[in-house]
Known about the structure:
Elements: H1 5-21, H2 28-46, E1 56-61, H3 73-82, E2 87-93, H4 98-101, E3 108-109, H5 114-123, E4 127-136, H6 142-159, E5 164-168, H7 179-200, E6 203-207, H8 216-223, E7 231-236, H9 237-242, H10 247-254, E8 258-263, H11 268-274, H12 294-306, E9 312-315, H13 323-338, E10 342-343
Parallel strand pairs: 1-9, 1-10, 2-3, 2-4, 4-5, 5-6, 6-7, 7-8, 8-9
Helix pairs in contact: 1-2, 6-7, 10-12
Amino acid sequence: MKRDYDRIGSIKNMEYINMHQSGTDFTRREFMVATSATFLGAAAASSAPKRKDDIKMNISFHTDAFNSSYWNFEKCLQWAQKNDVHYIECGIIDGVSWIHGLGYQPHLALYEDPLMLHRKMEKYDVQFSQVDAAFPLSGKDGPLYGVPYVLKTIPWAKHAGCERIATTDGLHKPEGLSDAKAMESMKRSYGQIIEVAEAYEIIISIEVHGYFTTKPDMMEKMLAFCDSPYLRMNMDTGNTFIAGQDPVAFCERFKKKVTHVHVKDVSKSLAAAVRGEQTGIAVSHCAIGDGVNTENIKKVLTILGDVGYDGELSMECEGAGGPMIEKSLAWLRRTLHELNIKSG
């Protein structure tokens, strides 16, 4: 899927050439500030709310759905092709893992060549909606392990044809840190990450998943860590719900910051047992449309449609080898049709 990034990139390149032809001496940071302003201007010119009948939301899925089936990534591509799904999201592995190396894990490692992978995905007519580099950045280990992990993922994602990388905080209050100290640390971390993301024109999404991100006031502060169009939010219908929040109100508050959506339902039994006590769901063992979060998901889709969101909706649920996620796919396609939202 080609968006306005190529056009914006061309504008940036021309500006860069003009700067040097005129003898203007710019530092790297000054250049990035100038080009970010160009991005914002172009985005503003093209981001007037679209009519609901003009938008299209693309259906994606997280390969976590096939963790329990011990599929590899290519088998997930085959599933996508068979079910006419053209977008995919997976986790990134920084290093070598025996279970991944044996072909029993549906995620990707940074040692896998991104250009060759891109060509393989083109044969299946599938592209990334996002890759997941969500090592928790809120704890003491965040700057040590999480930041380098994301920084290494950025150029890999660029070569793999992926526009977006997911990040997040930890599930619990960071041990040995006050909330204020943890927020200060994350602000520094995101500052480092966004500087590189701007250079590669990669969007960094903050996923609603943990102790800080499921609190709307904290999420608002995190989205203000950097004044950059490359820092956005990954809405998650299931994590907001299980954390005790109202997914509809959460989405309404941040609807203009949403760059990617995890569509996740919650079973009645799980909601009764842990709602308000947990901040995230590893994998929902409930087909989308079968849980207690169904009406919230419909309302979230309506809000996004009204604001002109034309990005990806990534299904997150247990695949059960196919049947459960296929049931979710049918529900999501049917629901988008009922809401008069085109899907791809």
